[in-house]
Amino acid sequence: MDFYSxxxxxxxxxxALAALVVALVGSTQPLLVRQISLGTTVASLAVACVLAFGxxxxxxxxxxxxxxxxxxxxxxxDAPHATTWNLIDFNMGRERSAKGGxxxxxxxxxxxxxxxxxWLVVLTTILMVxxxxxxxxxxxDEDRVHEFHAWLLLLGFALVGVFIAFDIILFYVFFELTxxxxxxxxxxxxxxxxxxxxRKFFIYTLAGSVITFLGLLAVVVVCYNKxxxxxxxxxxxxxxxxxxxxxxxxxxxxxxYENFQFWVFLAMMAGFAIKVPLFPVHTWLPLxxxxxxxxxxxxxxxxxxxxxxxxxxxxxxxxxPDASISVGVPVIGTLSVVGIIYxxxxxxxxxxxxKLVAYSSVSHLGFCTLGMFALNSTGLTGSLLQxxxxxxxxxxxxxxxxxxxxxxxxxSIAEYGGLGSKLKIITFCMVFISLSSVGLxxxxxxxxxxLVFFGMFETRMGLAILGTAGxxxxxxxxxxxxxxxxxxxxxxxxxxxxEVEDITPREIAALAPIMAVCLLLGVYPxxxxxxxxxxxxxxxxxxxxxxxxxx
Amino acid sequence: xxxxxxxxxxxxxxxxLGSVIIVTLGRRMFPDRCHVPCIAGAIGAxxxxxxxxxxxxxxxxxxxxxREIAWIQVGNFSANFSLRADGLTAVMLxxxxxxxxxxxxxxxxxxxxxxxxxxxxxxxxxxxxxxxGLVLANNFVLLYACWEGVGLCSYLLIGFWYEKPSxxxxxxxxxxxxxxxxxxxFIGILxxxxxxxxxxxxxxxxxxxxxxxxxxxxxxxxxxxxxxxxFIGAAGxxxxxxxHVWLPDAMEGPSPVSALIHAATMVTAGVYLVARCxxxxxxxxxxQLLVACTGGFTALLAALIAVTQTDLKRVLAYSTLSQLGxxxxxxxxxxxxxxxxxxxxxxxxxxxxxxxxAFFKALLFLAAGSVMHAMHDVIDMTKxxxxxxxxxxxxxxxxxxxxALAGIPLLSGFxxxxxxxxxxxxxWHVSGGAASGIYCLLFFTALFTAGLTAFYTARAYFxxxxxxxxxxxxxxxxxxxxxxxxxxxxxxxxxxAVGVGIVLGPTHLFESVLEKKWITAxxxxxxxxxxxxxxxxxxxxxxxxxxVGIAYWLYVADPSAAASVASRMASIYDLSRSKFYFDxxxxxxxxxxxNAFAFICRVVDQYxxxxxxxxxxxxxxxxxxxxxxxxxGLVQFYALLMALGLAGFLLSVLLR
Lengths: 551, 656
Description:
The complex is a heterodimer. By secondary structure, chain A is mostly helical. Chain A has helices at about 5-25, 30-60, 120-135, 145-165, 170-175, 180-190, 195-225, 235-250, 255-275, 285-290, 295-305, 305-320, 320-350, 355-370, 375-410, 425-435, 445-460, 460-465, 470-485, 505-525, 525-550, and strands at about 85-90, 105, 105-110, 230. Chain A has a domain at about 325-550. In chain A, strands 1-3 form a two-stranded antiparallel sheet. A two-stranded parallel ribbon of chain A has the order 2-4. By secondary structure, chain B is an all-alpha fold. Among the domains of chain B are: about 1-140; about 355-575, no CATH class; about 585-655, no CATH class. In chain B, strand 2 and strand 3 form a beta hairpin. The longest helix of chain B is centred in the last third of the chain and has 36 residues, at about 580-615. The termini of chain B are far apart. The interface between A and B is large, with 60 and 49 residues.
C-alpha cells in the first residue's frame, strides 16, 4: 500500500480513534479532551492537505466514462482504481463459477479520492478544526465535554467517510451514520426546543434517505439481472459503466429503462432533496440550525447539506441520466429558483440572526442545484465550487454568530446595533464573509455563482435569468443585517456586568483559514477548477451522450 | 524597463500594493502616515498612465497584456486577466489616476488623524485599483468584477462614519440600488456570451456582432435586449433615473470620496461601459433612443431638484446626476442613419464631457469639502453666507469650478456641453419619423437644462460666498481656509477646470486621440466626419448667461425676490424641494411590498409548509390510534380473534 493510500486510511482512522479516546478519557479532564480533539482535527487537516497536494500533482488527463478514484487502499497494480478489500463477499465458500456464470461481487471497503470529493474532504477537515475551536468554552457542562467531543469527532469521521466512499453500501452506512452524532449534539447541547428539533431532523432526513437506499439497491439489482453475465457489484464506478452500457446497448428494453430511471430518480431525489434541502422540503433545516450548538450548525450547514448535492452529482446524474434530463431539469431547476428567491425572502424577515443565516443556506443551496441541473461541465463545476463556497462562507457566518451569541447571549437582531464600534475585528470578519456570501468578485462566492449562471443559461435561459434575482436578494438580507447589527449607534444587550471583548486568538485561529481560502478561491480558482475537470466531465459527458441519443 | 505593456499592469497594481501595505503594515507601524502609500500608489499609477498614454498614441495597435493568464476557465466559459489600452482607456486612465492623486493628497489634509485614518486610505487605494482595472479590462467578466469592486469601495466609503445611522443607511442603499443594476449588466453579459461566440473578450464579441450584421443574420431583438440589460447596469452605476436615488444620499461619505467616487470616476463607469459598447449600441437604434431619453430625462429631473436644495453637497450631487444624464443623452444620440453616422461624434462628446466634468466637479466637491471643514461639518447653505473674504482660496477655486459647470463660454464645461448639444441637434435632423421628434424634444430639454444648470450653480455660489457674512455657531470665531496640502490640489484642479476645454476641445486634440486610437479601429462603420455648429455655441452661451443672471438677480441684487418667486410657484417648488418624492415612492412601491412579501413567506414557511410536515408526521400516530383498541389486554378477545383468524384461514384454503 502506498503512502497516499495510508494517509487516506488515516483520514478515517484519526477521528474514529480520537472519538474513542476522548470518550474513554471521561469527564474528569475536560481540558485534555479539548486538546486531544484539537490535535487530532489539526492532524486530519494536515493529512487532507498533503493528500490534496498529492492529488494535484499525480492527476493526469483522462478520457474515461466513469469515475476513477485515486489512492485507493487495497488496489492492485493491474487495477489501480479498484480495491480488493471485501467486507462481505458473496462468493464466500463458493468457487467462482465457470465462464458465463454469475459474477458475484462483494460489498467492499472501497474508498478513494477524485476531483469531486477531494475538496469536500478538505472543507470538512477545515471546518472540523473550526468547530473544535469554537466549542472550547461553549459547552458549559464540564462533565459532558468528553461526550460532546466524542460525538463531534464521530461526526467528522462519518462525513469524511460519505465523501470518500465508492461502494454504495459503504456510502449509505456513512450517510446514515452522520445522523447519530448530530442527533445527540442537537438534542443534548441545543437550544430550548432541542428535543423537537433533533427528532424532526432525524426522522425527516432518515425517511428520505431510506427511500434513496431502495433506489440505489434497485440499480444494483437491475444491473445484476439485465447483464448477460449477471454481474453483482456495489462499486459506484462499475455501476455507472454497466448501467450506461445497458442504456446504450439494451435497445429492446428501452421503455423499461425509461420508467425504471424515472422511479430511481424519484427515489434518490427523496433522500437527497431533503438533505440539500430543496424547497419545499427544507423546513427541518432552520429549526435544526437554530437549536444546534454552534459547532453543530457549522458542520450541518458547511458539510452535511453537501451530502445531498454530492449525492445528486455522484449517483443521481450518472445513474438516472435520462430522467435527470427530462424530469430533473424542469422540476429541480424550478424548485431551485423558487428556493433561491423564497429562502432569501424568508431570511430577510427573520429577527433571529441565526435563523437568517439558516434560511440563507436554503437560498444558496438553490444555486448549487441550479448549476448542477444545467447538466453541462460549466454548471456542474460551478455547482461543485458552490458547495465548497457555501461550506466556507456559511460555516464562517455560523462561527461569527456563535461568537456574538457567546458574548451577549441573545440572537435577536433588534437587540443589537452598531457593534462595529466595539467589536472591530469581528465586524471586519463579518463584512468580509458576508461579501463572500453575496458573491462579490474577488472572493469565492462569485466564481461559483458565475459558473452556475453561465452553465444554466445554456440549458434553460429563463431559469438562469430568474435565478439572478438571488444576486440582489442575497445582498438585501445580508447587507441589511450588517446595517442593523454592526453599523449605526452602539446598542448592546444587557451583559450582566462582564466586559465584552473583541475577537480572541482562538477565534481568529478558527476563522482566519476560512477567510484565507475564500480570498484564494476568489482570486485564483483555476488550479481547483482544473483538478475537478476530469471527474465533472465524466458526468457531463454521460449526460451529453444521453441527450444526443434522446434527440 | 518602463515599457508601456509593463505599465499596463502596474497601473492597477501600484494602488493595490498601497492598499495592501496600509492594511498589513500601516495600521500598526505608521497609523498617522497611512496616506503615504496611498498617495505614492496613485502618483505611481498616474506616471504609468502617462507612459501608457504615450504608448497608445505612438503604437498602431492597442496595448495588450495577460490574455493568456487564466482566472476562471471551465468548459466553454473562459475569463482571463486580460488588459487592453486603446484611446478610450488611455484617456480614462490619465483622468482617473490624475484626479485620484490630487484627491489622495487633498485627503491627507482633510481627514482627521484618528484610528480610522488607515481604513480611509486603504479603501481609496483599493478603489483606484478597481477603477483602473475597470477601464483596463478587456473582457466583460473582468469588467464586472472591477465594477462590483468599485461598488464595494463606494459602500465602504459612504459608510465610513458608520456610527452615524444616516451614513450606514446611505451605504446600504447605494450598495443595493447599484446591485439591482448589476443584475442587468450580468444578464447582458450572459446574452452576449451565449449568442455571440461564447467569448467574453470585447473584440471577439464586437467582431462577431459585426460579422452577423454584415451577413444579415443578426438577431436585432436579441441585441436590443443585450443593450438594454447593459444599460440597466450602467444606469445603476451612473445613477440614472429610476435608479438615481442612491447618489444624493451617498453624500454622507467624506467629501474627498464624493469628489473621487461620486463625481469624477466611479459614477462615470456607466458612461464608459455604454461608450465601450458603441459597436453594439450603434446597431440597436431603439436601445440608443432609450439611453438618450433616460439621459435627457435624468438631466432635467436632477436639475429641477438641484435648484431648490440648500445642502451644498446635495446640490452638487444632483448636478452630477444631471451632467451624467447629459453624457447618456450624447451616447444615445449616436444614431446611424444612412450616410449620417453620428456614433463617433456622440462618443467623443460624451467622453469629452466625462473628462472635463471630472475636473470641475471634483474641484467643486473638494471646495465644498473645504467649506465644510471650515464650518465644522455644517453644509447647509442657509446657515452660512458671504464666505468670500473668510475663505479666499476656496472661494476662487469654487468660482472656477462653478463657472465651468455653468457653461460660461470658453471654460471647459462650455466646450463639452456644446458638443453634446450639437450631437443631439444632429440626431434630431438626421433621424426620421418619431425618433426625430423625440430627439427634437430632447434637444430643447437639454438646452433648458443648460439654463437650469447655470442657475443652480450660480445660486449655490452666491448663497455660499456672497451676501452678508454669516457663520454657523459650530464654526467658531475664526474659520480657517484650506491648508496648503488641500489648497494645491484645489488650485491645480481649478486650472484644469478653466483650461482643459479650450486646450483640448477647439483644437480637436481630444477628438483625434479617440478618433485615431479607438473609433476607427473598432467601429469605423458607425462614424463619419462632421462640422462645428457656431449658432449652437452662441445659443448655449446666451442660455448659460441668462441662468447666471437670474441667479444673480434672485440671490445678490434682490435677495427678497427668491422667497417671493418660490411662493408664487409653491407647488413646483415643493415638488422640487422634496425631490419629487422619489424616496417615498420607492418606500411605498418597492421596499414596503418586498418586506411584506418577505414576512408572508416567513409565516407561510413556519405555519403552512412546516405545518404540513408535522401533519404528515402525525400519520403513524393516527394509524396507531386507530388500531390501538385491538390491543385491549382481554384474553377472551384475543382468543376470539385467534379463532376467527383460524376459521378465515381454513375457509380460504378449503374454498380455493
